[in-house]
Design a protein that fits this description.
Strand content: 5-15%
Shape: globular
Helix content: 25-40%
Number of helices: 14
Structural class: alpha+beta
Distance between the termini: 64 Å
Radius of gyration: 23 Å
Strand order of the largest sheet: 2-8-9-11-10
Number of strands: 18
């Protein structure tokens, strides 16, 4: 006899993320069917006595149409290869189709958790905002929140492509579109008082689904063709590291303890907590992280749009009072885009994935002419004073120095 979903699920542990085994997902199929959701078929690949990997294989009707209305992703033409999403023996996300045969992801979360509250706040936004390309806020929305009645909630959301392979962008306009979508998504989250805290390439989705492995040349070629169209969109997703604040909270005054800075993806974290403050502003931290993402991928776009050097610096300025908010960065970027000619936006560019540019702003400032440098110099991050650079060096090379500095700052409250 098949177990009902409440009997099947283990008791959730609020201190950990919700994770279900593949057997649990498979045994839950009839319950999901009653909700109008058909889970993809899961097949084992690369079996191992200690660990097995699975693929979610989509139904044969996937790709019957290459048109999908927002917020759902466009699908490439139907072909013999099934959609495949690799997964491990336990997972948080299953792939499925809704009653209208639209590809969706179903994520299991703990009811009442911070992540659950975040999805609820996004779900309260009028659905019409997500169905119009001119108003789409570049955040992947939940389309349904299904309560299991056993401490878990299943979040249904559109299934988009991931990762977007940012380094494959081939035009100036394509780079500007990515940055605009990213800042639109971040600005939208901040308007809802959601601190994202997880800036990472793999947390960005693109509105195209292909039947190829995510790192295959077929998948990347399909993305390159999609970027040539006018309907390309990117969206932020995955809020398990995010924090929700009261809707009327001041973005400038919100704080989290410095101990929370370790949450989320590490690569793009700004240095806001390097000098041992007791608290930090997670919204300013988000903007700094996005700025470092841009600095990594887009320095070669600066010769075409010199004002990007100013944008990158103002997003990553170590002095929080000078740093752009997400809304200010978006407004600044739109101004640069509006003043760029079609020839500039259509120009081809070769992106260089260079992590060193995250630490060295001269890489992109050196691409400006003397006249352009003088024009944008007011936005340039000032050289840090010698004492600040000495402290940076000291705490970088000594954990005891950071601990001592933290003690002094907490004792004298500065």
């Amino acid at each position: 006899m098949e177990l009902s979903l409440p009997e099947l699920l283990p008791v959730p542990d609020p201190d950990y993320c919700a994770v279900l085994t593949h057997d649990m997902w498979n045994q839950s199929r009839s319950w999901f069917a009653k909700q109008g959701i058909v889970l993809y078929e899961s097949r084992i690949h690369y079996p191992n006595e200690h660990y097995s990997s699975y693929f979610w294989h989509s139904p044969a009707n996937t790709g019957d149409s290459d048109i999908r209305d927002l917020p759902y992703a466009k699908c490439t033409s139907k072909c013999d290869s099934p959609f495949a999403v690799m997964d491990g023996g336990c997972c948080r996300v299953a792939c499925a189709q809704d009653a209208m045969h639209r590809d969706i992801a179903v994520k299991v979360i703990i009811t009442g958790s911070m992540e659950h509250q975040i999805y609820q706040r996004i779900h309260e936004v009028p659905a019409e905002l997500f169905t119009d390309g001119s108003t789409f806020p570049c955040v992947l929305p939940p389309t349904a929140l299904l309560d299991s009645q056993r401490g878990y909630t299943f979040v249904a959301m559109p299934l988009w492509g991931c990762p977007p392979h940012i380094g494959d962008i081939q035009t100036v306009g394509g780079a500007m579109r990515f940055m605009r979508c990213y800042l639109q998504g971040m600005s939208f989250l901040h308007q809802l008082r959601i601190a994202y805290r997880d800036v990472w390439d793999y947390n960005t989705a693109i509105n195209l689904r292909t039947p190829f492995c995510e790192h295959s040349e077929g998948h990347r070629e399909a993305l390159r063709a999609h970027r040539g169209g006018s309907d390309i969109l990117y969206a932020l997703m995955d809020f398990d590291q995010s924090v929700l604040f009261p809707i009327d909270a001041s973005l400038e005054k919100c704080r989290l303890p410095v101990s929370a800075v370790g949450d989320g993806a590490f690569l793009y974290k700004p240095l806001d907590t390097k000098l041992a403050p007791a608290h930090y502003n997670p919204f300013a931290f988000d903007v700094g992280a996005a700025g470092f993402l841009f600095r990594r991928y887009f320095p070669t776009v600066v010769p075409f749009i010199p004002g990007l050097a100013a944008l990158f610096d103002r997003m990553t300025d170590r002095t929080i009072a000078r740093r752009f908010s997400a809304a200010e960065a978006l407004l600044f970027l739109r101004g640069l885009e509006d003043h760029s000619s079609p020839d500039v936006l259509e120009a081809e560019v070769v992106l260089q994935d260079d992590i060193d540019t995250m630490d060295d702003a001269t890489v992109y400032w050196s691409k400006l002419s003397p006249e352009e440098s003088r024009l944008w110099d007011p936005y340039r991050t000032p050289v840090r004073p010698l004492w600040a650079r000495f402290l940076d060096w000291t705490v970088t090379h000594s954990d005891n120095a950071w601990i001592a500095l933290a003690f002094v700052r907490r004792t004298f409250r500065f």
